[in-house]
Design brief:
With 692 residues, the chain is of the alpha+beta class. The chain is built from 25 helices and 18 strands.
Length: 692
């Protein structure tokens, strides 16, 4: 008799939320897997399946029962288990009673820490069939469902009404009542192609049976790949390429069980509209894929994915063409309406939109950002007037008809309208670039004006929210400050902008007048930036101790921080690095123990006694001259390479000179030597943080 069987779990429902289907499927599979691991049931593989009407998993070679095991409970130590006469103490007697045995039935176990009385019991493993219902119920309880629903008079809640449950373990059905249904081996096929029940022969025939008999492609990834292939093939036949938005592809995969891609057409006159507006209309309202010519322009075609293989596909296409006409007509109306007045005319409307109750309106914010953007522009070689103008117009498209209907077009429509108004090209581009990067790995603003406005907009939001005591907490980040902070860092570092964050934060703070309540905003926001910079640097290949070495000197210019980090990484490859890191650690310890803050920093020549300390003093004088131009040019690698050559002099000092001598003046002079030595290294980083 085999010790394993395959298991199928399928929960049949009303149509599940398409955007959440992939997440639900993953969580369902992980929950079952964790449940099996928790009860120590081994299996070969677990595979998820999901369609709009079902969540399922197939588990291969699952143990039919748990392994028998010995359960051990430890009681009192032997020293506390018996009194002087050798009789069991009350503690021992109580332990034996709790185990349901006599004292004589207990055993003694010995460890390095002593001997204890223990109770050992052989526990039989439970049948897998008895454990699956509990695992399934716990998995459903833990699914990430923000809002559960009830139906009928049933006590249970789920994301959608449940219609069937398949629990097939090998050839046997595991009995279970769940959310108003009783487990069986019958599933449902496609709602139209095969509405009759399908009897599942075995877990391993589940997916093939549904596809051949039920017209259901139950494998989510296979269905997604099929849609991707069909859409691309149709686009190619139309002489173009499909614009496949990954989010739309996921959503469509969550909408259909039997995907059939069909191509339709729309009136070419709509191509006069901005391509982004047409794409948003097609994707957002109709879940259509747009088609682009090899040259980049949109073609007057769309591709829809039907959930049925129609006997008259032309009728389906005609229906979709009728539906898309009013949608595109709406977009054309919005476009024409918005162009009746210049973008700048919308500025006054921004005074009616609250950005944040304590921070004022969107208009107020645009005024603050304009001041900060102009200042940043001056520092990075951009035109301050253009940056100021771009910031003033930046949010105007929020009150246009087009963005009101398609919020994802904010910035994009601003760019179009600004160009039509004859605004400077950099101003127009900045209206779109202010939102960059929109997500991790997204492109960065290319124009200097766009960079200035993007940084200013994000810093204004960060200082404002921190300033009223509303920084991100846990998973809550309603103003996307994590993304904003990383965006600022990426723009400054990757676009090589020599900007001081502390200086910019102080300017941003001054623009809020008396709106803010927090007293240490700059410090809080800088710490937040350092935390984000740590993750960025580690992803770029830096080591944690290298980052800590640079962080110890708190550089406030992100570009400068990364240059120091690069220098430290190069330094640690030198043969002198380990010795110098240890030496710096030793210097730091000595200075801390002797009140580094009170230690004299000036070296008195006539107090130098030993040849080794005189040699170090001479080196320090020469180093201060030689390193000045290197530091001025931020050549931190050159600085550390120079300091690496001082290893022998520093080692000789420690070998031959006693720092903590009785003579107060000599001792302070030697501490001053160490202070100056350490200061040279701290001009780049605290290399004592480097681990071996």
């Amino acid at each position: 008799m085999t010790n394993t069987r395959d298991l199928l779990i399928e929960l049949g429902t009303e149509e599940l939320p398409p955007k959440a289907l992939a997440t639900l499927s993953k969580a369902f599979c992980e929950g079952i897997e964790q449940g099996l691991n928790k009860v120590e049931l081994s299996f070969d593989e677990i595979r998820p399946y999901a369609t709009p009407r079902r969540l399922a998993v197939v588990i291969t070679k699952l143990q039919i029962r748990q392994q028998d095991r010995t359960v051990e409970r430890r009681g009192p130590a032997v020293t506390a288990a018996f009194d002087e006469d050798g009789n069991p103490t009350k503690a021992l007697q109580g332990f034996a009673r709790s185990c349901g045995v006599e004292v004589d039935d207990l055993e003694t176990t010995r460890t390095d820490k002593g001997a204890w009385l223990v109770f050992k019991q052989q526990q039989q493993g439970a049948d897998t069939q008895s454990l699956i219902p509990g695992i399934l119920q716990q998995t459903l309880n833990d699914l990430p469902i923000p809002k559960r629903m009830r139906w009928g008079d049933l006590p249970g809640e789920f994301v959608r009404p449940v219609h069937w449950l398949v629990l097939l373990f090998g050839d046997e059905v595991i009995p279970m009542d769940l959310l108003g249904v009783t487990s069986d081996r019958f599933t449902a096929g496609h709602r139209f192609h095969h509405p009759q029940p399908i009897r599942i022969s075995s877990p391993m025939t589940y997916a093939p049976q549904l596809e051949t008999e039920g017209h259901v492609v139950v494998d989510y990834d296979a269905r997604k790949e099929a849609i991707h292939g069909q859409v691309n093939e149709l686009a190619s036949q139309l002489g173009g390429d499909a614009i496949i938005n990954p989010d739309l592809l996921e959503e469509v995969t969550g909408l259909v069980e039997w995907p059939v891609a069909l191509a339709g057409n729309f009136d070419p006159r709509f191509l006069e509209l901005p391509a982004e507006a047409l794409i948003s209309s097609m994707e957002g309202h109709q879940k259509y894929f747009a088609v682009r010519a090899p040259s980049g322009e949109l073609l007057p075609h769309f591709i829809t994915v039907s959930n049925i293989a129609s006997q008259d596909p032309a009728q389906v296409v005609a229906g979709n063409e009728r539906v898309i006409l009013p949608r595109l007509s709406d977009a054309a109306f919005f476009w024409d309406t918005d162009r009746k007045q210049p973008l700048a005319a919308h500025r006054e409307q921004l005074q009616t939109i609250v950005f944040q109750n304590k921070l004022g309106t969107v208009y107020d914010k645009s005024e603050r950002v304009a001041k900060l953007a102009a200042d940043i522009a001056c520092q990075i070689g951009a035109d301050a007037k253009l940056a100021e103008r771009a910031a003033q117009l930046a949010k105007c498209d929020l009150v246009t008809e087009m963005v009101g209907e398609f919020p994802e077009l904010q910035g994009i429509m601003g760019r179009y309208y600004a160009k039509l108004d004859g605004e400077d090209s950099e101003v127009a581009e900045a209206l779109d670039e202010q939102y960059l990067p929109r997500y991790a790995g997204d492109k960065l603003p290319q124009t200097r004006t766009g960079q200035a406005v993007s940084i200013a907009e994000k810093l204004d939001t960060m200082t404002g929210l921190f300033g009223i005591g509303q920084p991100p907490s846990g998973m809550k980040d309603p103003f996307a400050l994590r993304r904003a902070s990383l965006g600022v860092l990426r723009i400054i570092i990757e676009k090589q902008l020599d900007l001081d964050l502390v200086q910019l934060l102080n300017i941003a703070l001054s623009n809020f007048a008396d709106k803010l309540s927090e007293q240490t905003v700059t410090e809080q926001v800088m710490q937040y930036f350092y935390d984000r910079l740590r993750g960025y640097a580690l992803e770029e290949g830096a080591k944690a101790d290298e980052f800590e070495a640079v962080l110890a000197v708190r550089p406030t210019r992100p570009l400068d921080f990364m240059q120091r980090l690069k220098a430290v990484a190069a330094f640690r490859q030198l043969e002198q690095a380990e010795s110098l890191a240890a030496g710096n650690k030793r210097i730091g310890n000595i200075l801390r123990k002797n009140g580094a803050g009170q230690t004299a920093v000036e070296i008195v020549d006539n107090l130098l006694q030993e040849p080794a300390e005189k040699a170090l003093a001479e080196k320090l004088i020469q180093a201060s001259k030689d390193l000045a131009p290197l530091s001025a040019n931020a050549d931190y690698t050159g600085v550390l390479n120079y300091l690496a050559d001082m290893r022998e002099t520093i080692d000789a000092f420690f070998d031959q000179v006693m720092v903590m001598v009785d003579d107060e003046a000599v001792r302070q002079n030697r501490l001053a030597l160490l202070n100056q030595t350490r200061a040279l290294f701290l001009g780049v980083a605290d290399i004592s943080c480097l681990q071996e």
